[in-house]
Write a sequence for this structure.
């Protein structure tokens, strides 16, 4: 009888010695798994957020600039056929200058690195060309934005793939934007098409 | 006990496999699709505005933009996967009183129907 109880106590002890570490390991593995899933999901959400924010930022800027333009020209950049350049002219009224006051803006959509996108303000007083002066304004004055996932370039994968004027209604500028992110474990690729009507546009040149 | 712990481990590992596989599908595809739809509606509005400025009267237009834009894609998955599922958008326009125009964009995703509707005031010359 005594030996039987002793044996049982010994069995319980041995059982706990083996099972407890295993149980701790099991819980650790479960926690690890949950952490991995949640971090993966949050990375995906961050990728979505970054891309969508970026698409909005670029499209909004282009459409706002296009809407007020009185002259627009789309052309391929000299030396690089992959880059579209759009050139807007605005008429500024209400100035004390007697002649029309032009303010020029141009977009440079680079397929590789859109952070190089800058717009040129060229102020030319009246017809006296050559007497104007140029100001090059970087689009992002606070330095390039950072990708929240990799720390890389925030805008690196966004490409304006097409800029054209749709034929039947000539005052409509059609813009195609492609977005892509290829991080570790995250793949996103989508395309956004949009158009903008330019009510005060008098002349359109280009493609 | 020992055997039961091993069984528990096996069961949880299976559960982990299933959950990890499902994690990709939980990702919200619709946030991107909603932005595509939003800009598609903007395209339709631009075309309507252009026609209204020319003097055409407002009517229940079908999609006036580039028809290729209706077939768009959202790609999320393994790298270099050629099977990109196109998503077909449906754009409808309805004219409301006081030259208000509503554009509705609808699309299907995984058997479920989603839509956005935007209403704008269109300036007409006539």
């Amino acid at each position: 009888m005594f030996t039987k109880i002793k044996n049982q106590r010994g069995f319980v002890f041995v059982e706990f010695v083996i099972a407890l570490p295993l149980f701790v390991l099991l819980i650790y593995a479960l926690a690890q798994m949950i952490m991995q899933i949640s971090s993966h999901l949050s990375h995906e959400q961050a990728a979505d957020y970054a891309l969508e924010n970026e698409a909005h930022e670029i499209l909004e800027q282009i459409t706002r600039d296009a809407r007020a333009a009185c002259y627009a020209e789309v052309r391929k950049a000299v030396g690089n056929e992959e880059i579209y350049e759009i050139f807007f002219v605005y008429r500024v009224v209400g100035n004390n200058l007697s002649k029309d006051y032009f303010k020029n803006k141009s977009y440079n959509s680079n397929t590789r690195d859109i952070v190089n996108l800058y717009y040129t303000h060229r102020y030319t007083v009246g017809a006296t060309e050559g007497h104007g002066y140029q100001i090059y304004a970087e689009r992002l004055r606070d330095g390039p934005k950072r990708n929240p996932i990799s720390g890389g370039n925030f805008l690196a994968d966004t490409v304006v793939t097409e800029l054209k004027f749709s034929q039947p209604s000539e005052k409509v500028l059609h813009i195609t934007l492609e977005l892509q992110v290829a991080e570790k474990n995250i793949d996103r690729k989508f395309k956004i098409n949009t158009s903008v009507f330019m009510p005060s546009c008098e002349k359109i040149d280009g493609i | 006990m020992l055997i039961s712990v091993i069984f528990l481990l096996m069961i949880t590992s299976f559960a982990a496999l299933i959950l990890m596989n499902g994690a990709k599908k939980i990702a919200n595809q619709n946030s991107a699709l909603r932005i595509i739809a939003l800009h598609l509606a903007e395209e339709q509005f631009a075309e309507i505005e252009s026609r209204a400025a020319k003097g055409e009267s407002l009517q229940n237009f079908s999609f006036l933009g580039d028809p290729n834009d209706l077939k768009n894609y959202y790609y999320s998955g393994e790298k270099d996967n050629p099977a990109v599922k196109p998503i077909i958008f449906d754009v409808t326009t309805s004219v409301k009183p006081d030259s208000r125009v509503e554009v509705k964009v609808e699309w299907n995703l995984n058997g479920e129907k989603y839509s956005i509707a935007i209403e704008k005031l269109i300036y007409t010359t006539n």
